[in-house]
Amino acid sequence: MLKHINKITVVGGGSWATANIKMLTDNAAEKEIFWWMRNGQAVEHISKFRHNPNYLSSVEIKVPAANISSDLKPLIEAADCILLNVPAAFLKEALAGITPEDFKGKKIVSAVKGIVPDENQIIGEFMHHKYNVSFDDFMVISGPCHAEEVALEKLSYLTIASQDVELATEFAGMLNTRYIKTIVSDDIYGTEWGAVLKNVYAIASGICHGVGYGDNFQSVLISNAIRELERFVDEVHPIDRDIKESAYLGDLLVTAYSQFSRNRTFGNMIGKGYTVTSAQLEMNMIAEGYYAVNCLHQVNLQHKVEMPICEAVYAILYKKASPTIEMRKLAEKLS
Ligand SMILES: NC(=O)C1=CN([C@@H]2O[C@H](COP(=O)(O)OP(=O)(O)OC[C@H]3O[C@@H](n4cnc5c(N)ncnc54)[C@H](OP(=O)(O)O)[C@@H]3O)[C@@H](O)[C@H]2O)C=CC1
Ligand SMILES: O=C(CO)COP(=O)(O)O
């Protein structure tokens, strides 16, 4: 098999980027890794002490200091594969100054689970329209996997999706370790949209917990959520897919139930009465579902898929609807 990927630049300095750095450097396949993050102080700290001071700080960083920088352009130039790992809301800002020419001939991997605001596009569409990235050169990393469990080396499964299954297989071979298993898929759209939606359902799950519903209700909420997710992905990209696969149902379950989920934690705080701003400040991490539900609301104006859970979360986060009342109304629509 022809090898396409020898040098990978990871773009982003948060928890998941740090976990991806760990997986890529624990994996034995030959490759060189570069790492960009916007925070210059974190670059200095990592270069000196070999740990990210702000996220997953227990993880030992094995990327050479010379390959870590807050200057993106040279790092993109240096690599043949770019792994995007900045929250979708900040992706445009992170890529400011980067042109389609800079991405020419490179393989692009998205580990982002969000929608680019204003464009309301998932990452594959955004990279295609703004940077001329062909879908044949594009991959997605998804699946039920929290960065915190990667740091603990707990067994996890990732799905690598691409139209080019051979390419996805090559990239998957760069992530496999004792604690990471990979699955290859050709469903880029379903994988991306599924990951976006499950974040919103995890917020709903957190809100329900916050306002006082128990596990019994939550299980009904999540079984409705997977049906809502399936309705939407089947509308935007109708192919034969099994929604029970781990990239869809698995990711929904882990995010809706895990103590590590940012989205669930954020929702729980909203249910308990925090404002959006105070919940965001308290968390110090990004709940993608907050931004995504606004974009989804716009996107679904065209598709008109029945999405009562997304609409309830949208009303609470963007229309100041009461979580208690909105969840009571939602409960009437679930089955
Ligand atoms: N965490 C996880 O387990 C997983 C996350 N993902 C996805 O990975 C992506 C990155 O999330 P994750 O690593 O968890 O993020 P974290 O919540 O761990 O970190 C937040 C990241 O966002 C950056 N950021 C925050 N505010 C801004 C801003 N105003 N402008 C630019 N950058 C900003 C931070 O940079 P700084 O530190 O400089 O403030 C930091 O890199 C998301 O799409 C998420 O859904 C996917 C799978 C698992
Ligand atoms: O995507 C994730 C797990 O698969 C991470 O979800 P959270 O952003 O809610 O932590």
TrEMBL record:
Record-listed sn-glycerol 3-phosphate binding positions: 113, 143, 198, 251, 261-263
GO cellular component: cytosol
Active site: 198
Binding positions for NAD(+) per the UniProt entry: 90, 147, 262
Residues binding substrate, per UniProt: 113, 262-263
EC number: 1.1.1.94
Matching Gene3D superfamilies: N-(1-d-carboxylethyl)-l-norvaline Dehydrogenase, domain 2 (1.10.1040.10), NAD(P)-binding Rossmann-like Domain (3.40.50.720)
Binding, NADPH: 15-16, 38, 55, 113, 147, 262, 286, 288
Transmembrane portions of the chain: none
PROSITE patterns: NAD_G3PDH
Domain Glycerol-3-phosphate dehydrogenase NAD-dependent N-terminal: 7-167
Domain Glycerol-3-phosphate dehydrogenase NAD-dependent C-terminal stretches: 187-324
Function: Catalyzes the reduction of the glycolytic intermediate dihydroxyacetone phosphate (DHAP) to sn-glycerol 3-phosphate (G3P), the key precursor for phospholipid synthesis.
Official protein name in the record: Glycerol-3-phosphate dehydrogenase [NAD(P)+]
Organism of provenance: Mucilaginibacter pedocola
The organism's taxonomic lineage, starting at the top: Bacteria, Pseudomonadati, Bacteroidota, Sphingobacteriia, Sphingobacteriales
